[in-house]
Amino acid sequence: MSLRIGDDAPNFKAQTTEGDIDFHQWLGNSWGILYSHPADYTPVCTTELGRTAQLKEDFANRKTKVLAVSVDDLDTHFGWVKDINETQNCNVDFPIIADTDKNVATLYNMIHPNASTSATVRSVYFISPDKKVQAIITYPASTGRNFAEILRVVDSLKLTAEHNVATPVDWEVGQDVIIPPGVKQEDVETKYPKGHRIVKPYLRYTPQPNK
């Protein structure tokens, strides 16, 4: 069955370019991003892994660990990493799983038969510290991922996990957020002391609570 938002993120043990890991243990109390690549030495993925390395501090500031998976072996990964570092002007030092038996790809439903019976689609799983799947984005092999959006989703997930708010369209850190419909109007002033504005009874905004 397909993984859905709210499901437990399956645990696994795997060989990676940074050593053997137990996924849940490796994640610890951090947020995590697990994302897949159809194969090594693919051009779009080369740019994506490079961008991930370049954004190391951005992920660290969000207490978010990143883990990539490809169905090729470790030796192939190491060769590919050299190319990525050279062409993308970066230093890839996060784990890339050698998923030769497709164990992780199968656990995370990364092989879609309508797209390919052997290669993974380019899925991104956002996983919370309690090891739950909180968001999923899936791309075809031809479309590079938008890492500004990936960081934005992390920011939204972390904010809405800690505060009873939702984030509106195109929201970015520092902008107003939405008060959920389930919050009664008579409770708004107490729960949202920074103030609020009402556009419609069901559409209420408040300043981001942690800014």
Automatic annotation (TrEMBL):
Pfam families: 1-cysPrx_C, AhpC-TSA. Residues 3-159 form the Thioredoxin domain. Keywords: Antioxidant, Oxidoreductase, Peroxidase, Redox-active center. The keyword RNA-binding does not apply. Transmembrane segments: none annotated. InterPro entries: AhpC/TSA, Peroxiredoxin_AhpC-typ, Peroxiredoxin_C, PRX_1cys, Thioredoxin-like_sf, Thioredoxin_domain. Coiled coil: none annotated. Belongs to the peroxiredoxin family. AhpC/Prx1 subfamily. Belongs to the peroxiredoxin family. Prx6 subfamily. This is Peroxiredoxin. It comes from Arenibacter arenosicollis.
